């Protein structure tokens, strides 16, 4: 046998990397009869299988265009359709302002690669989407939490935090999900959107507005969805000089059409887009032209608005089943009542031991995500996230019963 030297060590960020806390729950999901309130998975019954089958057929009939490598920035027809979505959401956009990404997850990853160096300060609303924390940890960023309340990220607290930071620790980026946040379900108040952009301009940081859920707004008292506040990027258009909008907008077809397409998109100024396109060249050359063509055909088919409408109504029914089920009597779990999206954020009575509750819930056949996954540090262990999107209403009712039994066992 030849004498051998140990292989070279892994890069520092990957020496002992923590995996996604949500993906680590996967083994529980395969247990027979388990009801999952864990992942932010769209409902299988809401996929427009017929419309997507037609779009897929149409895509394949296009032949080479759908089967060949494509431009890194994305297929022109899809960029056009996504720019139209951006304009419908009140933002200025042409096809050339859009970068198609492999899910919006890739959009954030590219931004981190082109902007963040080890030790750089990045502000994150907390509780935060775990994959954002994971990407920032791998980039060895210094993550500073910005607190939230029921109206989203607290801009007063942000202003105070920024005022106390030395010049060499000013942030490069701030990450927020202003519309029906993951995990807290909150909608960022309109005045706070203005305050956030003003702070970004004053302190010279970029804002990442991650918006996969904004279209899933529930009906209000009048039976129609109340108007949305302007996107943070649209506020940036009003407040910043032309071409200096500090807001990068990310969105996705995952929650409204199908996550398997892996089609997300970024709307940003030319300097950011160009750099992210270069970073994407080494990540995957281009997002699958086949699924991009399917997505473009689907958006052009005119079926998208009805699909979104169905999802909005169904998710509202499911949210109500979960929230009302937990609100009746003393469930030991107090939860938010979101105005859209897929998530309910909850806090536990202090008499309940969080790990005991999780174990009891799993034994009862229901699973959720314990709150600690959503904090970069100092987690509030008496919190948890539940998604009402994937299970049908009867399953949600059963999940509530199981949770109540688990609370009794853990209290
Ligand atoms: C806030 C947020 N951003 C991004 C993503 C990733 O979405 P995509 O499937 O577009 O990569 C998710 C998925 O759960 C999410 O909740």
TrEMBL record:
Cofactor: pyridoxal 5'-phosphate
Keywords of the record: Aminotransferase, Pyridoxal phosphate, Transferase
Annotated InterPro entries: Aminotransferase_I/II_large, Class-I_PLP-dep_aminotransf, PyrdxlP-dep_Trfase, PyrdxlP-dep_Trfase_major, PyrdxlP-dep_Trfase_small
GO molecular function annotations of the record: transaminase activity
Domain Aminotransferase class I/classII large: 50-403
Name of the featured protein: PLP-dependent aminotransferase family protein
């Amino acid at each position: 046998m030849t004498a051998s030297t140990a292989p070279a060590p892994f890069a520092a960020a990957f020496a002992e990397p923590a995996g996604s806390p949500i993906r680590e729950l996967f083994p529980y999901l395969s247990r027979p009869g388990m009801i999952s309130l864990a992942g932010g998975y769209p409902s299988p019954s809401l996929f427009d299988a017929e419309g997507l089958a037609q779009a897929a057929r149409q895509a394949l009939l296009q032949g080479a265009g759908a089967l060949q490598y494509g431009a890194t920035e994305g297929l022109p027809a899809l960029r056009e359709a996504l720019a139209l979505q951006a304009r419908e959401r009140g933002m200025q956009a042409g096809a050339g302002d859009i970068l198609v990404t492999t899910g919006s997850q890739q959009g954030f990853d590219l931004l981190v690669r082109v902007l963040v160096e080890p030790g750089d300060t990045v502000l994150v609303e907390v509780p935060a989407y775990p994959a954002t924390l994971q990407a920032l940890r791998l980039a060895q960023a210094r993550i500073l939490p910005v607190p939230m309340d029921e109206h989203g990220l607290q801009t007063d607290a942000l202003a105070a935090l920024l005022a106390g930071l030395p010049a060499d620790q000013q942030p490069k980026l701030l990450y927020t999900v202003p519309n029906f946040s993951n995990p807290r379900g909150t909608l960022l108040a309109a005045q706070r959107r203005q305050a956030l952009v003003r702070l970004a301009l004053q302190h010279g940081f970029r804002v990442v507005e991650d918006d996969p859920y904004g279209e899933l707004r529930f009906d209000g008292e009048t039976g129609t969805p109340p108007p949305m506040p302007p996107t943070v990027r649209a506020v940036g258009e009003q407040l910043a000089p032309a071409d200096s909008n500090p807001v990068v907008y990310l969105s996705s077809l995952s929650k409204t059409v199908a996550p398997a397409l892996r089609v997300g998109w970024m709307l940003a100024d030319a300097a950011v887009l160009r750099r992210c396109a270069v970073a994407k060249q080494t990540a995957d050359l281009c997002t699958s032209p086949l699924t991009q063509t399917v997505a473009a055909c689907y958006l052009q088919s005119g079926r998208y608005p009805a699909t979104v409408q169905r999802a909005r109504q169904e998710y509202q029914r499911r949210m109500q089943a979960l929230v009302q089920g937990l609100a009746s009597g003393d469930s030991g779990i107090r939860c938010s009542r979101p105005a859209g999206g897929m998530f309910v954020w909850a806090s536990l009575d202090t008499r309940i031991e969080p790990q005991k509750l999780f174990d009891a819930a799993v034994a009862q056949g229901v699973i959720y995500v314990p709150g600690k996954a959503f904090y970069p540090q100092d987690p509030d262990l008496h919190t948890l996230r539940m998604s009402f999107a994937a299970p049908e209403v009867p399953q949600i009712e059963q999940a509530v019963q199981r949770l109540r039994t688990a609370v009794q066992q853990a209290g």
